[in-house]
Amino acid sequence: MNIIILIAIIVAAFLVYRHYRDESLLGMIFKVAIKALSNNKARSFLSMLGIIIGVAAVIVMMSIGQGSKESVRKNISQMGTNIIMIRPGADRRGGVRMDPSSMQTLKQEDYEAIRNECKYVMYISPEVQASGQAIYGANNYNTSVYGESLEYFEIRQWEIQDGTSFTEQDVQTAAKVCIIGKTLVDNLFPDGQSPVGKTIRFKSTPVRIIGVLKSKGYNSFGMDQDNLMIMPYTTVMKRLLAQTYFSSINVSSLTEETTDQTIEELTEVLRRSHKLKDEADNDFSINSQAEMMETMSSTMDSITIILVVAAAFSLLVAGIGIMNIMLVSVTERTKEIGLRMSVGARGIDISVQFLIESILISITGGLLGVLLGYGISALATALFHLPTSVPFWSVILSFVVCTIIGIVFGYIPAQKAANLDPIEAIRYE
Fold first, then answer.
1. Long-range contacts for 109-115 (Cβ within 8 Å, ≥24 apart)?
2. According to the model, what pLDDT value does residue 2 have?
3. 171: left (phi over 0), alpha (psi -120 to 50) or beta
4. What local confidence, expressed as pLDDT, does residue 1 receive?
5. Which of 411, 401, 404, 407 has the alpha carbon at shortest distance from 57?
6. CB–CB of 417/366 below 8 Å?
7. Cα separations (Å) of 244 from 46, 101, 105, 132, 164?
8. Rounded to whole angstroms, how far apart are CA atoms 126 and 326?
9. Minimal CA–CA distance to 390: which of 403, 404, 372, 406?
10. Where are the chain's structural domains?
């Protein structure tokens, strides 16, 4: 669609140039148009104002939408696009709450079956989650605990900045050890001392800190990725929650390209492990990071389109404002138009002059709007830490739209000027 509009503008420009082979005449019309606009600076600026605000609004909306989309994709990519998450059956189906037992379908047997039978799986980690207060001396902080296996650090690309990770022996013995994030370090150890080797309490259970994770900061959803504790999954299951089932199982496929095969393989193994009949529905769900990225991108695109359409309505209002101003200008300059026609100016010459004035107002307003849009986007990033990214094609599209507005809404005033009777125009007071 944009290409068709651009071709139409080029063809129109070519026809005008072909009509005015005498470049001096076309140049003179441009000079007259610019002089007419400069003689009414305040009016010209007010005519541009709607275009400036409209284009700036469109640029800012597209900038925030595109920036948010890229930020989400970046965060998901950092975790790995070949990650697959297995969760127990949804707690609601058809608006009816399901039996609690349906949320307890992932067991140790499933973990072992996947580990032993799935050839497309590179890493696997069962996951158990809990939340509560971590306490050290007089300091405390609410946090989340993740019970994982050793392979979790490979799946989620976590790096240990200080200390070490837990061992397979710690998993087997459900050792009371943990690795904590930087947010917990800052809040439990505000004096700057090293937390490694210190014993803290989670709820009423003492656990020894053996490592500190490298900081990841906040993600695109505003969640603090450093406010967490990671323990052996057996420790969380036996010593904190006293449960025998997993909250989820995280899997990493061999490559991103083999994700679909991995999902098929996981589905087959879990259905066999759960002894489900052919006609029975799955009592688990499997989702990949790639699916999540696609869903989030689609959602962000929809939101961006809605915002841009809402902002674009101001361009329509601005176009009507330009047409109104140009009609007033034609009325005020009726006598001038009559004089030009009486000395040989043709109707098309008058029409082109007013079209040029309309297009100049629109394009100049578009240029100022783009600059304002860039400025607001940079300010939003600096002050509010919003991810922004202005796509170059949006700038080109803005100028194309502004040119179309200038032509469309300048046409009626231009035709009105061209159709004036020279004698009646000269007599006009």
1. 109/273, 110/246, 110/249, 110/270, 110/273, 110/274, 111/246, 111/249, 113/269, 113/270, 113/272, 113/273, 114/249, 114/251, 114/266, 114/269, 114/270
2. 47
3. alpha
4. 43
5. 401
6. no
7. 71, 12, 10, 20, 27
8. 70
9. 372
10. 2-75+295-427, 106-282
Both ends of the chain: CA-CA distance in Å? 46
- The residue behind tokens 């127990």 is 88
Residue whose structure tokens are 């001396």: 137
Q: Which residue, chain included where needed, has tokens 């969380």? A: 236
pLDDT tens-place string over residues 18-70 = 555 555 566 677 777 788 788 888 888 888 888 898 888 888 888 888 888 77
Give residue 79's pLDDT: 61
**Token couple for 209:** 């800190």
> Averaged over 344-369, what is the pLDDT?
86
pLDDT at 384: 81
Buried (b) or exposed (e) across 66-83, using 16+ Cβ within 10 A? bbbbbbbbebbeebbbbb
The torsion angles phi and psi of 194, rounded to 5 degrees, stand at -70, 130
Look at the alpha carbons of 263, 269, 274, 277 in this order and tell me if their dihedral is positive or negative. Answer: positive
- Per-residue pLDDT tens over the stretch 156-184: 889 999 999 999 999 999 999 999 999 99
Angstrom distance (rounded) from CA 280 to CA 332? 80
Sign for the pseudo-dihedral over CA of 113, 115, 117, 120:
positive
The residue written with tokens 């993600």 in the block is: 219
List the single range of 192-206, 306-320, 352-366 with lowest mean pLDDT: 306-320
- Whether the CB-CB separation of 56 and 382 falls below 8 Å is answered with no
Q: What is the mean pLDDT of the chain?
A: 84
422/11: higher pLDDT: 422
Among 405, 378, 389, CA closest to 323: 405
Instruction: Check residue 149 and give its pLDDT.
Output: 96
Residue 385 has pLDDT above 80, yes or no: no
Whether residue 220 contacts residue 69, with contact meaning beta carbons closer than 8 Å, is answered with no
Residue 74: both structure tokens together: 């970046």
Amino acid at 93: R
Residue 341's pLDDT band, with cuts at 50, 70 and 90, is confident
Residue with tokens 């609410």: 142
DSSP per position, 128-164: EEEEEEEEETTEEEEEEEEEE-TTHHHHTT--EEEE-
Residue 212 contacts residue 184 (beta carbons within 8 Å): no
Structure confidence at residue 315 (pLDDT): 81
